[in-house]
Amino acid sequence: MWKKALTLLMLVLLFALAACGSDDDTSGETETDNETENTEEENTENEGEEASEGSGGKVEIFSWWTGAGEEDGLLALIDLFQEKHPDIEVENAAVSGGAGTNAKAVLAARMQGNDPPSTFQVHGGAELNESWVAADMMEPLNDFYEEYDLTDKFPEELIDLVSKDGNIYSVPVNIHRGNVMFYNKAVFEEHNIEEPTTLDEFVQVLDELQAAGVTPLALGDKEAWTATQIFENLLLATLGSDDYKALWAGEVGFDDERVREAAEYFQQILGYVNEDHASRNWQDASQLVGEGEAAMTNMGDWAKGYFSNDLDLETNEDFGYFPFPGTTEDFMVITDTFGLPKGVENPDAVKEFLNVLGSKEGQDTFNPLKGSIPARVDADPSKYDEYGTDTMEDFQSANLAPSLAHGSAAAEGFVTKANQEVNIFVTQQNIDQFIQKLQQAAGEL
Ligand code: GAL
């Protein structure tokens, strides 16, 4: 009992600490989307099960999907849900800030205050299992998976990420890829640049672009996770996917030579980023690439949603993409999932939402807008553009690796410290100190 209370208190402190590190608004102001309030008239039959007649009530959906590049998929999913369940009121309680920088702290405070949202965005892996499941705050969803025939609809690796001790605790809505480089096609063409596949080719290309007077790499690390993402991709490149996973399992140490190598590449690469990186967020950095003011950026493929929906750019015409150099055969997995916290008011209505989110139709509505691929194995590829179908193909054959920056690889305590140390490294670039601090923090893995 008190172990759980202690876990919870630790979580609140950690999330609050993480949010304090960001310059963004941490007021916890939520965005209620009035348009999504229950107004649709039609109740369309839900796939494979009867349309709910009148479980009624309200569902509060908590996420960090607000604004450019983030919210289109969610709003479309909410519309679909309202079509199917006009009797259930929806409150879109999103808190802005990439990677949940602010939302996670607001969520932790609410969970501790016994005021959980009806359902919330949480990454599969440690973020779900070591936090909310460990604190005994989530309902197991095994019966729900059975009842809605979801058990064999997701890849086993994803089910593993949302399970602990034989119970399933959330429903994945998507799979994002974190080891992607997006680039401006015209800039690459103008400077005769080929897509680099190894880290040394990458550095060479960065150098050529810099010599040609182009900003080679766009970075917006106002929120530190974007830089952590580069570092985790470098770790994946130098360690390979097996040892990258062994690092998070505590079987490979941070004193490993290949961790140092990753830090050395990191330092080198930081020499090629835009000068104002510390005052930009991920959208502002991606915009530099979209508008041809920088050649490329490493970003999860929510940037694809941003390029297509917000900047109106064409896939493989205006922007291209390739795996982060050195990780061509790998796939850094980021999965957004939603579960059922204990003690919510309308669990049946929440399950209806989880069912729409986990349905083929729900996933094929959400993901083409979000830039991610569907988590379900039976989704319809014709709903996706070439980026989506390429990524679906890669997912099948690649070595899968869990993201640190997006909560899957390690518990929140380590993620918070890693973000802080990355942030310090970006300014001070002291490799020995960086590794030493990571090693200390790894004691908590
Ligand atoms: C990730 C999340 C994505 C996207 C991104 C930027 O953590 O999984 O869906 O929202 O942050 O905020």
Beta-strand percent range: 5-15%
Strand order of the largest sheet: 2-1-3-13-6
Radius of gyration: 21 Å
Compute the separation of the termini in Å. 22 Å
* Mean pLDDT value: 91
If you had to describe this structure to a student in words, what would you say it looks like?
The chain is α/β, with parallel strands linked by helices and 445 residues long. The protein has two domains: 2-174 and 334-392, D-Maltodextrin-Binding Protein, domain 2 (3-Layer(aba) Sandwich); 177-332 and 407-443, Periplasmic binding protein-like II (D-Maltodextrin-Binding Protein, domain 2, 3-Layer(aba) Sandwich), CATH 3.40.190.10. The chain is built from 17 helices and 15 strands. The chain has helices at residues 2-20, 72-84, 103-112, 126-133, 142-147, 156-161, 185-190, 199-211, 225-248, 257-270, 282-290, 302-310, 347-358, 360-370, 386-397, 412-428, 431-442, and strands spanning 58-63, 89-94, 119-123, 163-164, 167-168, 170-172, 174-177, 180-184, 215-217, 294-298, 319-323, 330-334, 336-339, 373-374, 399-402. The chain has a five-stranded mixed sheet, sandwiched between helices. It has a four-stranded mixed sheet with strand order 14-7-12-15, sandwiched between helices. A four-stranded mixed sheet has the order 9-10-8-11. The structure holds beta-D-galactopyranose.
